[in-house]
Design a protein that fits this description.
By secondary structure, this protein is of the alpha/beta class. Helices cover 41% and strands 19% of the residues. Strands 2-1-3-12-11-4-5-10-8-9 form a ten-stranded mixed β-sheet, with helices on both faces. A two-stranded antiparallel sheet has the order 6-7. Helix 9 packs antiparallel against helix 10. The radius of gyration is 20 Å and the shape is globular.
Length: 341
């Protein structure tokens, strides 16, 4: 693998612990990475007045790739989401969440293999809210032709490149006829014009969620607008063992940020209890991105080595407590490193 510069945002709470574990595993696997530490979230407030410092954004723009641990977002008050700021300011319009059954992690379902693609910049999740008068607030849902068409084309291209069989668009266009109506119209238009080799379906989201928990095998890829995608991707994580065993990526035309999708868990921070697997899986996605987008062929070999190692570790019972095991953060990292080929 040729040397690669990557911005590292350790994050808050358990973020520094899981980030350290992941960096150690990548180093042991032969990833030649020049890590560039930067701050975001509560950690950034220890160094200045901004939760999303300009130098963090500039570093990602310059180097194109970042790996990010979990960052705290206050509920119902305080500063706006660091994740939302990153996605908007860097135009990371495609959120990618692969969800698959993991060896050694038994759940209600077997053989789950889904990819959720979420539009990342518009919709209610953008947080455009106003107080009209005391006691009355509004939230604005925005959809544009540009963003709807862009995410549809990205999703179908992803499906074709990775040999996926079909894309199901989840929506509520029976009620939100303009916004969700635009989303499904652009998805179908892009499919019919450019991607007829990929299967295409539409389903109202409430019925779709019911069918997901009945039998997830009937779905291959899901395409959703922003808020729906946030909710459904976590629902799908629950099918395979939770947020500790799924990776995430936010990808644009120029930059990409790979992240753990779970919370910062401040209650267990510093106790060697956190599971680093989600961030490690995101780092594997990052390595594959470097191979695909930046021609760093050796990165894919490292990605395969790490994925094989953590699959084997789980299968052989090396698990953290959230997965029914007894290993700490450092011990799980050591178990993965011991199985690197």
């Amino acid at each position: 693998m040729k040397k690669q510069s990557v911005v590292l945002i350790a994050g808050d709470g358990i973020g520094p612990e899981v980030s350290r574990a992941v960096v150690d595993i990548l180093d042991a696997a032969g990833a030649v990475i020049d890590w560039l530490p930067r701050h975001a979230g509560l950690a950034a407030l220890e160094h200045g007045p901004e939760v999303m410092p300009a130098d963090t954004l500039e570093a990602i723009r310059e180097h194109g790739v970042a790996l990010k641990g979990p960052c705290t977002t206050p509920v119902g008050k305080g500063f706006s989401s660091v994740n939302v700021q990153l996605r908007k300011k860097l135009n990371l319009y495609a959120a990618v969440r692969p969800v698959r059954s993991m060896p050694g992690v038994p759940t209600r379902f077997e053989g789950v293999d889904l990819v959720i693609i979420r539009e990342n910049t518009e919709g209610l999740y953008s947080g455009i809210e106003n107080e009209v008068t005391p006691g009355v607030v509004t939230s604005l849902k925005v959809a544009t032709e540009t963003a709807c068409e862009r995410i549809a084309r990205w999703a179908f291209r992803y499906a074709r490149d990775r040999g996926r069989r079909d894309v199901t668009v989840m929506h509520k266009a029976n009620i939100m006829k303009l916004t969700d109506g635009l989303f499904i119209r652009k998805a179908k238009a892009v499919h019919d014009a450019e991607f007829t080799d990929i299967g295409y379906r539409e389903i109202i989201i409430d019925a779709g969620c019911m069918r997901l928990v009945q039998n997830p095998a009937q779905f291959d890829m899901l395409l959703l607008e922003n808020l729906y995608g946030d909710v459904v991707s976590d629902l799908c994580a629950g099918l395979v063992g939770g947020l500790g065993v799924v990776p995430g990526a936010n990808i644009g035309d120029e930059q990409a940020v790979f992240e753990a999708v779970h919370g910062s868990a401040p209650d267990i921070a510093g106790k060697n209890l956190a599971n680093p697997l989600a961030l490690l899986m995101s780092a594997v996605m990052m390595l594959n991105y470097l191979a695909d987008q930046q021609g760093n062929a050796g990165a894919r070999e490292v990605a395969v080595r790490i994925k094989t190692a953590y699959d084997r570790a789980l299968e052989e019972g090396a698990k953290t407590r959230d997965l029914g095991g007894d290993l700490g953060t450092r011990e799980f990292a050591a178990a993965v490193m011991a199985r690197l080929g």
